[in-house]
Amino acid sequence: MTDVPSIQSPAIHSEDRAQEADHPASLVAQFGADQPLKLDCGVDLAPFQIAYQTYGQLNADRSNAILICHALTLDQHVANSHPLTGKAGWWEIMVGPGRPLDTDRYFIICSNVIGGCMGSTGPTSTNPATGKVWGLDFPIVTIPDMVRAQTMLLDRLGIETLFCVIGGSMGGMQVLQWTAAYPERVFSALPVACSTRHSAQNIAFHELGRQAVMADPDWRGGRYFDQDTHPHRGLGVARMAGHITYLSDAALHRKFGRRMQDRDLPTFSFDADFQVESYLRYQGSSFVERFDANSYLYLTRAMDYFDIAADHNGVLAQAFRGIKTRFCVVSFTSDWLFPTSESRALVHALNASSARVSFAEIETDRGHDAFLLDVPEFFDISRAFLQSAGKARGLDSKAFSSEVDTGSREENASKQKR
Amino acid sequence: MALQEQALPLGGIAPDRTGKYRSDHLLVAEMIGRGARVLDVGCGDGELLQLLESRGIDGRGIELSREGVNRCVAKGLAVVQGDADTDLVNYPDDAFDYVILSQTLQATRKPKAVLENLLRIGRRAVVSFPNFGFWKMRLQLLVGGHMPRTENLPATWYDTPNIHFCTIKDFVQLCDEINVKMERAVALDLYGRPVPLNLPWWVWNMFGEQGVFLLSRGGAGK
Question: Which among B37, B76, B90 has CB closest to A384?
Fold first, then answer.
């Protein structure tokens, strides 16, 4: 049998990714040996750096800052073109003038997580002690470590309290960690499509992805960069598996059904006969262009370890006791990776802590990824929640006159077309 | 009769000059003091919660329908999607000053358990419900021979969400049974006006289109 093309090798050279890891096309906050990041695993990481992007203006009393926490495979390039792929920012639909995260009103910050590969210190970065890439010598990081690093960035920026912390999936976990560990620094929180702990099924999917990476001979025990290879097949397969979990049966069926790819009859081979196969291979191939395999191992691990209740004697409500933060919890009906039941458990714990919480489950067949897509109901809820929180925070009262209705959404859509 | 003994005069109901709010909502709002922490169970599209928040009351809501919740959240209200029958148990004791059950009791599966939970979570409860003893209801069953339908309860018997109708008299009996104290009781007529207090109880049960009750926990040794 001939070699079947599946995951294409990346067109972007590994040197570009390595460049982005140490000298990113972003703002960078550097922390010296005197300011170590104290990791949960016991290691003091120093020196280290955080790459971040900002949008909009910080107001005079520094009260309008919103931190966006990004998901597993995303980065700080929320609303600008990606330095490696040139593609549009991953949340431009949500962030910009007149959008729910309105850059005319709020100062938006998004930083690459610790352990990431887009400029914050991670396994792709150069270890200053050896002058070589960290690789698997990089210490294991956790969600609390990521958030601890973010607090150091905010200290550096002189922002004491965030008006809002928002994020979906792994970003939502960071939001919850923020509220559990630093409640006094968070005025409002918008955790989306997430959970207070990673479920056994989700850990299982992550293990599948990690094993796919490590089974690729090009992984070379994690030292692939020394030998100028990259386990793009393994990472591509991990992405394909992950991507299935981000969608839903209904969404896949609606999008692809059993339709064939550029052919009418099956080829009786293992070629990508079906559109859904071709789509997944494309997803795998495009992912390896911009993402590092070792980073994928570290970040999936960080999610697996996440369990807020475990850090509070097994009682979730303890984590939020007496909290003043205003919450808006959002889940999506067809999300089977972080199902509504997980959000509901969070809401029950918040209720038990007498927190001010809203909870909306949004009906969509688009699965976990719905938070990244054009789901108007989600935009309306986010916008209204931020506006009412803004009123309570005393942010420019004129700017927060009620513009909740559909008119603003249409305006939004037309802005998007432009 | 318990109702006559326990019904206390109600302070003047603020006139709804704008016509923006329902009269039963205004009545409920009158019963709740400024700055109170309130949970509205079955808050619908948040009309009552908005009224309460406009009066400086710290309001939260639970609503079963997803559309209702999303409309509330879009209004900036703190509302969660949930079911009065199953989710009230998740709230701690004394979490609120008042818990409101507005026009929802008759749609619960276990009204008695719900009522008990209201007064566990809240120090006081405000409950309003359509009175099935209202003369129009009685007349429709007596003369028409069919299940009653009114302007406010237009659903047919087979598609109504209301599965546990009661009369004002029935409700008073339930309160007695589970040792709930009635601090205030008002019957509103078809036009949302209070039925005069000096009339005997059976008039209320006959001419009250709905009842609005302010309840608190009864004393220990009833």
Answer: B76
